C-alpha cells in the first residue's frame, strides 16, 4: 500500500513537471522589458520568448509575432529552443514509462524485476529531463542578469527575468524530485526483496540441521 502511494506521488509530481515544461516552452515571458532609469514608457511591456515576441499596451491590447528567422535570435535563445524541446520529449516519455511500470497497471504481464527496471528507467528519464530543462533556464537567466548590470548595453535593451524562467525552475525541480522518488523506490524494493529471499535460506538450513540431528539420534537409539 505504501509503495503504491509512493508511486502515485512520484507520478503526480512528474506529471506536474511535464505540464510545466510544456508551458515554459510555449510561453513568451522569458524576457520582460525593464523600466529603469530613463525608460519611462511603462504603458508598453515587451515579452520575448523562444518562438515569438509580444507587445502588451496598457494591459488591454497585446500583439504577438512569430520570429521571422531563427538566426535573428540570440545564441542562448537558439540553444534553448532545442533543449526545451528535448526536455519536453524526455519528460513525456518518462511519464508514459512510469505509468506502464506502476503496480496498479496491467499493461505489462511480467515479473516484478521487469516492473522495477521500467520504473528505474522512468526515474532516470525524469532526472535527465529536469537537468536538460535547467540548462536553458539558467543560461537565459544568467544572460539577462549579465546584460542588466553591463553598462555598455543600452537601457532600452535591458531585460528582466520573466515568469517563464521561474516556472521553469519549479518544473525542473518537480521532474528531478519525481525521478529521485522512483529511483529510491526501486532501491528500497530491491533491498526488501533481497532480505526476504535470504531469510528462507537460513530457515531451510536450520531445518535441515535439525532433521539430520534427529535422524542421527534415531539411528543411534536403534543401534542400541
TrEMBL record:
The record's Pfam families line, in alphabetical order, gives: PMP22_Claudin
Main localization category: other
- On the tree of life, the source organism's domain of life is Eukaryota
**What topology does it adopt in the membrane?**
Multi-pass membrane protein
Supply the InterPro entries for this chain.
Answer: Claudin, Claudin_CS, PMP22/EMP/MP20/Claudin
Under the heading PROSITE patterns, the entry gives: CLAUDIN (PS01346)
UniProt keywords, alphabetically: Cell junction, Cell membrane, Membrane, Tight junction, Transmembrane, Transmembrane helix
What GO molecular function terms would the record report? structural molecule activity
Q: Name one GO cellular component term.
A: plasma membrane
Compartments it resides in: Cell junction, Tight junction; Cell membrane
Bilayer-crossing regions: 79-105, 117-145, 165-185
Q: Which family does it belong to?
A: Belongs to the claudin family.
Annotated function: Claudins function as major constituents of the tight junction complexes that regulate the permeability of epithelia.
Q: What is this protein called?
A: Claudin
Organism for this UniProt entry: Eudyptes chrysocome
Gene from which the chain derives: CLDN8
Amino acid at each position: 500500500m505504501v509503495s503504491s502511494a509512493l508511486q502515485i506521488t512520484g507520478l503526480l509530481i512528474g506529471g506536474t513537471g511535464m505540464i510545466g515544461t510544456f508551458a515554459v516552452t510555449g510561453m513568451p515571458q522569458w524576457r520582460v522589458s525593464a523600466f529603469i532609469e530613463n525608460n519611462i514608457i511603462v504603458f508598453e511591456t515587451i515579452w520575448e520568448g523562444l518562438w515569438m515576441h509580444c507587445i502588451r499596451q496598457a494591459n488591454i491590447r497585446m500583439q504577438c509575432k512569430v520570429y521571422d528567422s531563427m538566426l535573428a535570435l540570440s545564441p542562448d535563445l537558439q540553444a534553448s529552443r532545442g533543449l526545451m524541446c528535448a526536455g519536453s520529449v524526455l519528460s513525456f516519455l518518462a511519464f508514459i514509462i512510469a505509468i506502464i511500470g506502476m503496480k496498479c497497471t496491467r499493461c505489462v504481464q511480467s515479473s516484478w524485476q521487469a516492473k522495477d527496471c521500467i520504473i528505474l528507467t522512468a526515474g532516470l528519464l525524469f532526472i535527465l529531463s529536469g537537468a536538460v530543462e535547467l540548462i536553458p533556464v539558467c543560461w537565459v537567466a544568467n544572460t539577462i542578469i549579465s546584460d542588466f548590470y553591463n553598462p555598455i548595453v543600452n537601457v532600452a535593451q535591458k531585460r528582466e527575468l520573466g515568469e517563464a524562467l521561474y516556472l521553469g525552475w519549479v518544473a525542473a525541480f518537480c521532474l528531478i524530485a519525481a525521478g529521485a522518488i522512483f529511483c529510491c523506490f526501486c532501491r528500497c524494493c530491491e533491498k526488501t526483496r533481497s532480505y526476504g529471499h535470504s531469510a528462507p535460506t537460513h530457515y531451510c538450513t536450520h531445518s535441515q540441521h535439525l532433521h539430520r540431528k534427529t535422524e542421527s539420534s534415531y539411528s543411534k537409539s536403534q543401534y542400541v
